[in-house]
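re: ur question from earlier - yeah i can do the single chain one, its not a big deal. heres the input i used so u can compare w yours
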Amino acid sequence: MTQDELKALVRTVPDFPHAGILFRDVTTLIGHGEGFAVAVTLLAQQAAAIGAEAVAGIEARGFIFGAAVAARLGLPFVPVRKPGKLPVPVLALDYALEYGTGTLEVDPGAVHVGQQVVVIDDLVATGGTALAAVELLRKASARADHALFLIDLPDLGGAERLRGAGVAVQSLMDFPGH
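and the output i got, formated as tokens:
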């Protein structure tokens, strides 16, 4: 499957969640067996090439891709959750969103000191959520200096924001706009 064929599996939904937004919907790619397998394989190859020792996935779609990559590589999966979802003491971080704030949490016992953890999510837009995940993992004493995404929206600058924080960023495809 070519990169263009993989990219064609991503549905664009105009005016969601707000007027003027072009929402890049990966559920159509996930629902295509071969396309999903190819995307997971490509992300797994990237994670292996950087020496990942664990994979962190950001709730919710990052769980889908991150857990599949972790399973493919036989690595631990670290869920980066929304508040109140983990049953143990957590590290939490509030971060800015385009229209408000969000909070992410991680179990600090899910990573080891110095462990190379790659962050995976479906899409990088402004980079705030991914940067919060990286900061949480670093606070838990992991090395979190790589992030992998299915999609980059370069016009929103998130990948560059992550790179400015010392995070190497790779994506399988990009789309113009927002």
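DSSP finds six helices and nine strands in the chain. not sure if urs matches, ping me
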